[in-house]
Write a structure and sequence with these properties.
The complex is a heterodimer of chains A (about 500) and B (about 625).
Chain A (H helix, E strand, L loop, with lengths): L1 H14 L2 H22 L13 H21 L2 H6 L1 H18 L10 E3 L2 E3 L1 H17 L10 H20 L3 H5 L5 H6 L4 H19 L4 E2 L2 E2 H21 L3 H23 L6 H19 L5 H28 L2 H11 L8 H13 L27 H33 L4 H25 L17 H19 L7
Antiparallel strand pairs in A: 1-2, 3-4
Helix pairs in contact in A: 2-3, 2-17, 3-19, 5-6, 5-7, 6-7, 6-18, 6-19, 10-11, 10-14, 11-12, 11-14, 12-13, 16-17, 17-18, 18-19
Chain B lengths: L4 H4 L1 H26 L1 H8 L2 E7 L6 E2 L5 E13 L1 H4 L5 H8 L3 H12 L13 E7 L1 H10 L6 E11 L5 H4 L1 E4 L2 H6 L8 E4 L1 H5 L1 H4 L4 E7 L5 E4 L15 E3 L3 H10 L5 E7 L4 E8 L12 H10 L8 H4 L9 H10 L14 E3 L3 E3 L9 H7 L2 H12 L6 H14 L21 H7 L24 H12 L4 E2 L4 E4 L11 E2 L5 H17 L13 E7 L7 E8 L6 E7 L9 H14 L7 H9 L12
Parallel strand pairs in B: 2-10
Antiparallel strand pairs in B: 1-8, 2-3, 3-4, 3-5, 6-7, 8-9, 10-16, 11-12, 11-20, 13-14, 15-17, 18-19, 19-20
Helix pairs in contact in B: 12-22, 15-17, 16-21
Chain lengths: ~500, ~625
């Protein structure tokens, strides 16, 4: 037995997925070099000076490699066995953080140990992934088996979300939303992703077009009502495949709409809100009466989606106006192009776009960027690190970084699918999901496509906690993957 | 358990999603970096250059509208180290700037010294040297094209239309590291007020900086305004200040005090406005402007006569006999004496110990006691007040202290100038401590009653007393700023302070002070046409000759000026205090000095008490 174990350990390095490791090393080293460029000051210091951000980052990288090697030395079963204890310890740590952490710029997420500060939220990622993987690995567990399985998965996901929200780190909390990709892969209905997509669309349309008024409704709400009707008809026609009801409902809406239009043209004051509510209610009533003849389930879902859409629409204004902080409202407005706030929140994005735009095809050359050096771009070595790459390495460099990330994520998905156990698969999908979210939001923010949400670019942004968090995440996956061929039941 | 192959297909959805996002990002990047020319235009210009536009500092006028402090342009040589590089023509630059290579290297080192210039960055504008002469500026402007990265920053420095009032006007200096730390408004190389109103009214005077966003090319050449200047912010000029000071009177006062050490403070009683505030010796405010500022400042600091020390505000002196009116007021209010109460004076107060006095009639009542400055009278009054039957010295002295504080002694008055001194008024605890718990009574501290001993007052506090008596029982906090453009002065200078002593008692004191001028110690103070009131002071001190002091106001009814004069080690109050005080009043009320008093003026202008002071340290 023992000799076999040693054998297994030595073979770990042969079984390791080297493409992933090489991609990891490329990204991490380019990250430290970019940090050096971002904080470089004309006449100061070398890249490896510990007083500089880049020097410290190289130190973090060194320690990360050590951590990675230690992770590889453990038996792969350790991670499965201790998944829940690890999760619980990290959760406790995050609870402690809420009370112990000092207030740094409104956020209480940093535990300070003398000269070293740690952000436990960064370690929540791998712990949650382990716990979720362990859950799915339970005997005969499938997500769709019963509703309580969904609850168990969601509880594992949302405990850290709540704790991180309590630390006032909205950005880091949002990351966990990406785990819905994992649930989707494990059998959650595609309708959920589909609805999420529509929710985002509704939200943007409703918030972006607050004026002018149509039939006493803001244009945004008016459009959302129309969208809801269109989606409703489409779902009847194509999802329920019911040509008759679909046609009748569509015609009904068209006739009512025409009538309302004519009345308005004649000077009659039609209340848009009541018009939409009444017509939609009538259509739903008609569908629910008609559906007893058919396969009920799909009709229920269709009506349900329409109802949820309506509720969502009514809650958008409340959420936007009352739940979100003013600065968050502002960031969303800037991202949607409603506000052109070049001196406030828009300043960051505008400056980062100028920095990236000024890079051209080939960039200004390493250390020759000026926009970032002149400190026009805030957080240039952390959240806005991609600016430096865009400015100094140009389109070629930034495209290379994006493609490297794409390659890494696709490689991880590939690794996930070659696992023989749900544990390995779910864990790897968690890793892929986190990376997808971070890359989309961070780079999207820097190039002005997403609202400014303060999350780091994995492997690039300066900071020990984030780097270690991602390293641990990735290396546990590699360790599990390296033992995939060992027989197990 | 086996794999669900229908679910496995979902990897294409997830993989497809991220691939789609990356494609969108790539298109966006291509758009930003390659095809969109608007970013490219900014791109080729490399960076903005944010040129700071300095506002004009507020001007300073005197109470008659005479312009006292104005601005003159000064030119600083600035550079952006990264654009300047290190291989520019150093010798050529030295030649243009008219400095030696050593000087240049010293400036260069200072610029990069993180202790002297904590905001140093190779990418932002740094100041190499300041106070370029107009001539050097012209020459540099011509040759500037030879030195990329260098430019000239125009700033405003002060120019003074007077040689007087340095202690009031203050001056401006370059900010230091602590200022930058304390107030984010300042950047290295900015100016801030130092001393005087320049310091206390800094926020009104400095205005708000503007910024001009320029674009420059890779060689550091300015290529015009960014987006035609729509993001530029124009500077807002500082507010103008009108002083309550009469600069002519101030200049006259400084002339009178030449060759003497001390102070003159004159206040308009009805408003608390300070008409002149002389501290002697003083200096020309223009000394602290321009490239010689540092050297001049050092020599002023090293001067043994301490010209930077504002004796009118900071000097805490024994008030001597100018203190006696306050004692009379307390005794009257407390019922220790009435205006008719008489005390004996046998060449002094003799009651177990002896406080000397000069010859005059005995016994004597309050008003003549003030007129002749009788020591014995106030010692008896103090004795009867402090040792009152049925009370304790501690309780009585606590009352005494509270009256003194009400009259503006013992605490800062709150004048609108920096570093005012409190003076000193002891309280009962002070004596309990200094007598180490042993019993003390009036006789132990009797010298307090004649303004000697522990009590100390600033000339400003003495002038404030004169102003209170002139008003017959109230005062406004003295201040030197009358108006600020576009805003109002601090409300506390409009508040009336009313000590809890009845107006009729102030009338008694005022009458006594009038009698001092008619037939008492202040006879020299009288001049034709105005009923002057006054009180001399001759304060003993351990350094040398007595200090000569005077406190007075004029006219007797509806006073327009209250004055305190304090001349260190100049002898009797009548010797210097009275003549100087009366000349100030005459000058202010009549505009000129009457011919029959010219001799007095001459004597004051040409005397030197520093040489005859008997003080060794001079």
């Amino acid at each position: 037995m023992e000799s076999r174990n040693i054998d297994a350990n030595t073979s770990v390095f042969r079984q390791l997925d080297w493409p992933t490791i090489i991609l990891y090393l490329i990204l991490v080293v380019s990250g430290a070099v970019s940090i050096y460029a971002a904080s470089y000051d004309f006449d100061r210091a070398s890249m490896f000076d510990f007083a500089e951000f880049s020097g410290k980052q190289f130190m973090w990288i060194g320690l990360s490699v050590v951590i990675g090697c230690v992770i590889l030395l453990f038996d792969y079963r350790v991670y499965e066995t201790y998944a829940y204890p690890v999760y619980i310890v990290v959760v406790l740590l995050m609870i402690a953080t809420i009370f112990l952490a000092p207030d740094i710029k409104g956020s209480r997420s940093w535990l300070v140990f003398g000269p070293v500060s740690l952000q436990p939220a960064e370690f929540g990622k791998f712990a949650t992934a382990l716990a979720l993987a362990k859950l799915f690995n339970s005997y005969n567990f499938t997500l769709n088996q019963k509703l309580s399985n969904y609850f168990r998965a969601l509880i594992i996901i949302f405990i850290p979300v709540i704790l991180i929200l309590l630390q006032h780190e909205t950005g880091s909390a949002l990351v966990y939303i990406s785990l819905f990709f994992v649930l989707y892969r494990e059998g959650m209905s595609g309708l959920v992703l589909f609805s999420a997509l529509f929710a985002v669309t509704y939200f943007i349309v409703a918030v972006k077009y607050a004026e002018p008024l149509l039939l006493g409704l803001p244009a945004g709400e008016f459009s959302v009502f129309c969208l809801i009707i269109v989606v409703f008809c489409m779902m009847l026609l194509f999802y329920c495949k019911d040509a008759v009801i679909g046609r009748n409902v569509s015609l009904g809406f068209a006739v009512c709409g025409l009538a309302a239009g004519i009345l308005t043209a004649c000077g009659v004051n039609v209340s848009g809100l009541w018009f939409f509510l009444c017509t939609i209610a009538a259509a739903m009533l008609y569908v629910s009466v008609a559906m007893y003849r058919h396969r009920i389930e799909k009709y229920v879902i269709t009506i349900g989606i329409a109802l949820v859409s309506l509720m969502f629409l009514f809650s958008v204004n409340y959420v936007f106006g009352s739940v979100l902080e003013p600065y968050q409202q502002m960031r969303i407005k800037v991202a949607l192009g409603i506000e052109d706030d070049l001196k406030g929140f828009g300043y960051n994005v505008n400056q980062s776009k100028i920095a990236i735009g000024s890079g051209g095809v080939t960039g200004k050359g390493f250390l020759n960027g000026t926009q970032t050096k002149l400190k026009y771009v805030p957080e240039q070595h952390t959240d806005f690190i991609f600016c430096t790459i865009g400015e100094e390495e140009g389109f070629i460099g930034s495209a290379a970084v994006l493609l490297a990330f794409l390659a890494l994520i696709l490689r991880i998905i590939h690794l996930a699918e070659r696992q023989r156990t749900p544990f390995g698969r779910v864990y790897a999908y968690c890793v892929a999901s986190y990376l997808i979210f971070h890359v989309c939001i961070n780079i999207g923010m820097v190039i002005g496509l997403c609202p400014v949400i303060g999350i780091p670019l994995p492997f690039f942004s300066y900071g020990g906690s984030a780097l270690w968090g991602f390293t641990i995440l990735l290396f546990i996956m590699l360790r599990i993957d390296a033992s995939r061929k060992e027989r197990r039941d | 358990m086996g794999k669900d192959y229908t679910l496995e297909k979902r990897k294409y959805v997830i993989g497809g999603f991220i691939t789609l996002v990356v494609i969108i990002f790539l298109i966006r990047l291509f758009n930003l970096q390659v095809s969109d020319s608007s970013y490219k235009e900014n791109a080729e210009s490399n960076a903005f250059f944010r040129k700071v536009l300095y506002p004009a500092r507020g001007l300073v006028y005197d109470r008659n509208g005479r312009l006292v402090v104005l601005n003159q342009p000064a030119y600083d040589v600035m550079l952006i180290p990264k654009d300047a590089g290190t291989d520019f023509d150093t010798l050529g630059l030295c030649k243009v700037l008219n400095i030696s290579r050593e000087e240049f290297l010293r400036y260069w080192k200072e610029m990069k010294d993180p202790r002297k210039n904590p905001g140093y960055s190779a990418y932002t504008p740094q100041k190499l040297m300041s106070h370029l002469s107009q001539e050097d500026y012209g020459r540099l402007q011509e040759k500037l094209y030879l030195f990329p990265g260098f430019y000239v920053q125009k700033r405003n420095v002060r120019e003074y239309a007077t040689h007087s009032g340095a202690n009031i006007l203050g001056n401006i200096r370059e900010v230091n590291a602590a200022d930058v730390e304390r107030d984010r408004y300042y950047r290295s190389g900015d100016y801030t007020g130092d001393l005087g109103i320049e310091k206390s009214y800094e926020h009104h005077l400095r205005g708000v900086k503007g910024v001009e966003i320029l674009m420059k090319d890779a060689l550091g050449r300015i290529k015009g305004k960014y987006e035609d200047g729509i993001h530029d912010v124009p500077p807002v000029s500082g507010r103008d200040i009108t002083l309550s000071i009469d600069m002519d009177l101030q200049e006259y006062g400084e002339q009178l005090m030449q060759g003497k050490i001390g102070a003159i403070v004159a206040i308009e009683p009805a408003t608390g406005e300070i008409l002149c505030m002389v501290s002697s010796p003083t200096y020309d405010p223009s000394l602290l402007v321009g490239s010689e500022r540092g050297r001049n400042y050092t020599s002023l600091v090293k001067d043994r006569l301490k010209p930077l020390y504002d004796r009118a505000l900071q000097g805490a002196y024994p008030p001597g006999s100018t203190f006696k009116p306050t004692q009379g007021l307390i005794f009257l209010q407390e019922g220790t004496i009435t205006p008719a109460t008489m005390y004996p004076c046998y060449r002094g107060y003799v009651n177990g110990l002896r406080v000397g006095c000069h010859p005059h009639g005995s016994p004597i009542a309050l008003k003549p006691a003030i007129a002749t400055s009788c020591n014995a009278y106030f010692c008896w009054g103090f004795k009867n007040f402090v040792d009152r039957r049925g009370s304790t010295p501690t309780a009585q002295f606590e009352k005494w202290k509270n009256y003194m504080v009400e009259m503006g002694y013992g605490y800062r008055l709150g004048v609108d100038l920096p570093s005012e001194s409190r003076g000193f008024i002891p309280n009962p605890e002070y004596y309990s401590k200094s007598f180490r718990g042993r019993n003390w009574s009036a006789n132990s501290i009797i010298s307090v009653s004649i303004g000697q001993g522990e009590v100390l007052a600033t000339p400003l506090q003495i002038a404030n007393l004169a102003s209170t008596i002139a008003n017959r029982g109230w005062y406004h906090t003295p201040h030197v700023v009358k108006e600020i453009s576009d805003t109002v002065i601090d409300g506390r200078y409009r508040e009336k302070h009313v000590p809890s002593i009845k107006k009729e008692y102030y009338e008694q004191i005022a009458e006594g002070m009038r009698m001092a001028v008619i037939g008492g110690t202040c006879r020299l103070a009288s001049f034709s046409g105005v009923e002057v009131c006054g009180k001399t002071g001759t304060a003993q001190n351990p350094h040398g000759k007595d200090h000569s002091a005077f406190m007075g106001f004029a006219p007797y009814m509806n006073p327009r000026i209250a004055v305190a004069v304090y001349v260190e080690n100049a002898g009797f109050g009548a010797a210097y205090g009275v003549p100087i005080g009366s000349l100030i009043m005459e000058k202010y009320l009549k505009g000129t000095i009457a011919p029959e008093r010219k001799y007095l003026e001459e004597r004051m202008l040409n005397s030197n008490t520093i040489l005859t002071s008997g003080v060794k340290k001079h």
